[in-house]
Design goal:
This protein is an alpha/beta fold. Helices cover 37% and strands 21% of the residues. Helix 1 packs parallel to helix 6, helix 1 packs across helix 8 and helix 4 crosses helix 5.
Length: 209
């Protein structure tokens, strides 16, 4: 482990920020590494908490109204999910559709803060208004560093930190690495999160400021 942990679900009823993980355990490891770098989770009374619904990807939005009702002070939310083999815009639309299906109105915010895999929205749920950041995990083809990953997921970022820049099945490649190599990659990611996880780092900075 990295010596600190992401804020637990029961961290605080006073939390104003929330991170929702729409996929598996490696996502939590990455959030921990970034939170350690930002020093947000090392502080007593961290201002953001982390939740992991039973559903995955866009289906996890089903739990958002429950969280909004339970944690009434939350005003900033980041939602993380893998792209998998979907087209990027289809993955984004699946989350937007799920938000609307569950009574949440998302309004896309344009500006310099936007990234290809990071979308910001002002959102409404009844009388409640909040900021919502959608993070789609994955790294695109980069000829400068020869990045080539198929079926985009959080493992793209982990493999990049491990020095593995090409894989057709990143999840399987990451799982096949020795635990020591995985630990080294996480420490490297912790030291340079903006390099290895640019969209995740930016979203967490917004949620846990």
């Amino acid at each position: 482990r990295l010596g600190c942990a992401v804020p637990p679900l029961a961290a605080s009823q006073d939390a104003e920020g929330m991170m929702i993980v729409g996929d598996g355990v490696p996502d939590l490891d990455v959030l921990e590494a970034i939170c350690c770098n930002l020093d947000g989770s090392a502080k007593e009374g961290a201002r953001a908490l982390v939740v992991k619904p039973p559903e995955k990807r866009a289906a996890a939005i089903k739990s958002l109204p429950i969280y909004l009702d339970q944690f009434k002070r939350v005003r900033r939310i980041a939602f993380f999910m893998d792209q998998e083999d979907e087209q990027l815009e289809d993955a984004v639309k699946s989350v937007e559709d799920a938000l609307m299906e569950h009574g949440i109105k998302p309004h896309l915010q344009m500006g310099d803060h936007m990234m290809k895999r990071l979308r910001y929205y002002s959102a409404e749920w009844g009388q409640k208004q909040f900021d919502f950041a959608l993070v789609v995990n994955g790294l695109d083809v980069d000829d400068d560093v020869q990045l080539r990953y198929g079926k985009h997921s959080i493992e793209d970022h982990l493999l990049f930190a491990a020095g593995i820049t090409s894989s057709e099945i990143p999840k399987a490649t990451w799982q096949s690495l020795p635990r020591n190599d995985q630990a080294k990659a996480l420490l490297k990611l912790k030291s340079e999160p903006e390099k290895y996880c640019p969209q995740q780092f930016k979203a967490i900075s917004m949620v846990d400021h």
